[in-house]
Amino acid sequence: MSAHTRRLPHADLLAALETRRSVPAAGLCEPGPSADEVRRLLAIAARVPDHAMLVPWRFILIEREARGEIGALLADAYRAGNPQMPPEKREKFAGIMSRLFPAPLAIVVVSRPNRETMIPVVEQEMSAGAVCLNLLHGAQALGFSGIWVTGWAATNDEAQRILGVGEGERVAGIVHIGTAKEPPAERPRPEVEALVTRWAKPG
Ligand SMILES: Cc1cc2nc3c(=O)[nH]c(=O)nc-3n(C[C@H](O)[C@H](O)[C@H](O)COP(=O)(O)O)c2cc1C
Question: Region Disordered: what ranges (predicted)?
Answer without folding.
Answer: 181-203
